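User: Show me a protein chain along with its predicted structure.
Assistant: Here is one chain, sequence first, then structure tokens.
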Amino acid sequence: MAAAKLSPTANLLRRSRLFALPQALDLPPEPPTSKSRADSDTATLPHPIRPSIVTPASSLARGDWGFKRPLPAKSTSLKSSKPVVRINAIDTFEHVTDFESAADHTMTLEKFQELHLPMSLPAKVNYATSIVPRHNSPFETNVDNTETSKPINEVGSKQFRHTGPWLAGLSEADFNAYLRRVQKDKPEILRKLRDRFTAQLNAERKKRAQDDGQDLATLAPIQVTDEDFQRYIKVLRSDPASLGPVLFDLLDLPSPPAVPSDRIGQVYYQSPGTKLSSSEYAVWGPPSTHPSAGLSYSRSHALIYNHPNNGPQTYQRPVEARILRPKGRFKGKSAKAIAGVGGIAVEDVNAMTFAEQGAPAGLASFDATIPGGAKYYVTPFRASVDSYGRIQLASFRATTAAKVAYGIQEYKKPSTGPLTPWMSVDEFTRDQQRIVPRLDRPRTSPLPISSQEPAQKTEDVARNLMRTLSSS
């Protein structure tokens, strides 16, 4: 059979790379809070919403990016050695192409891929203990399921997506719209409920017959009448504890967060055990993307880091982490330290496990004397993506054995003591120039304790002298 001929316009659109670009995603939702928030319009988003576009070097020299008009070299090739752009609007009212640099997410992806970390399902990481959450790959058969997957009906299967919405994250307007949609589908829901009731009666009858020793092949299926079905609906309506699991199953709703302790003794619509692949999804909602987000497709940590000179290593090369905000008190509250690892802001990176004498320089408080800013080396061991599409990275401080293999030494503050015999005058002067004096601290006398003692009186000196002459 001959293929249908396409018109020139259809053939052009079919071969166009521009029309092959996916649509832009929605902006990440703002957290529901009544407090005032100071957000920036130019800040990097938690996850990209538009694709990154590159062009060959031959086309880049002409400013040709495959759009209606060339892009200026001052904002692309002359600004970065790896120009990558994202398009906000191909043609605006002013007849210009609205674009911006996409190097923020592109470079973050490249840095993350250099960590060689597999993606894990979200789990709480407590740095105050030595217990590390077990790695659970989101690509396993029992958890990598949606509502249309084949293994979803198997025993112990989990899923990361439901057809119904997460009720805890809906606003009042969204919840009312969902109720109207449910009322529109009421006949279909009642049919599913009747099939569920019939299957339940048949299962109970089969169980009784099996206990009595009857032949199961001779059992006829139960025919549910309308009166029995209406009586079953009334029983469910009078018992919220029994109606809750039925509603969550029929509407395919994700499990909500845990019930507060002050409502445990009250009557409420109970939910069944969560079917989500991670318990964190029941607290913060189902993931907006696949749990891996396409960052890595490795399923385990089964990698050997082979050093060219020292052979196989237990850990890979340590990664340098920059301290973005040290520990301290901000707005009257004790704040956790924030560090940047591979372009990812990580909260509380080992800030609780460091002893005061072994903490990196600049972690306890801001230190402007450190050249290049406060940094230290870490070993990332776990990465996941939360419900809002943000990368959650966990790491430990790099051990001495991991740093020795690569010849890495962390920065140590120079000694502020007196000039030592092995220290030159230039080195001593340079180190003393880095010290910023504290004017709000009471000054102490630099003289030794022996020189601060009061001088002896003249009479005591004369009396001691006469005693010495008489004894001689």
